[in-house]
Amino acid sequence: MTAPKTDPVYIRYMETFSASTLHTRDCPACQNGQHCAAGAPIHSVFAKAQDAYQARQSAKRRS
């Protein structure tokens, strides 16, 4: 029996979620909803990965 194929879009989404969450946990500025210079790109990459994953999930539901 073979393992199911891993979804690279989902993996990227979860990796960026983890990075964003860890940064926010340790950054007081990002905890107040204002992204710091280091956090802004991390949160931006997460938002893009989330959008890509959700768009694909939505497309799957329509087909």
Tell me briefly what this model is.
By secondary structure, the protein is mostly helical. It contains three helices and no strands. It is elongated.
Descriptive terms for the model:
63 residues; mainly alpha; 3 helices
Looking at how many chains there are and whether they match, the oligomeric state comes to single chain
Q: Main β-sheet: number of strands, strand sense, barrel status?
A: none
Q: Give the CA-CA distance, first to last residue.
A: 28 Å
What is the approximate shape?
elongated
**Order of helix and strand elements from N to C terminus:** HHH
Give the structural class.
mainly alpha
Mean pLDDT, as a whole number?
Answer: 89
Low-pLDDT parts are none
Question: Over the alpha carbons, how many angstroms does the gyration radius reach?
Answer: 15 Å
Strand content: under 5%
Care to describe what's here?
The mean pLDDT is 89. Helix 1 packs antiparallel against helix 3. 11% of the residues are buried. Helix content is 75%, strand content 0%. It has 63 residues and is mainly α. The longest helix is centred in the C-terminal third of the chain and has 24 residues. The protein is built from three helices and no strands. The radius of gyration is 15 Å and the shape is elongated.
Reconstruct the topology from this structure.
Elements: H1 8-26, H2 28-31, H3 39-62
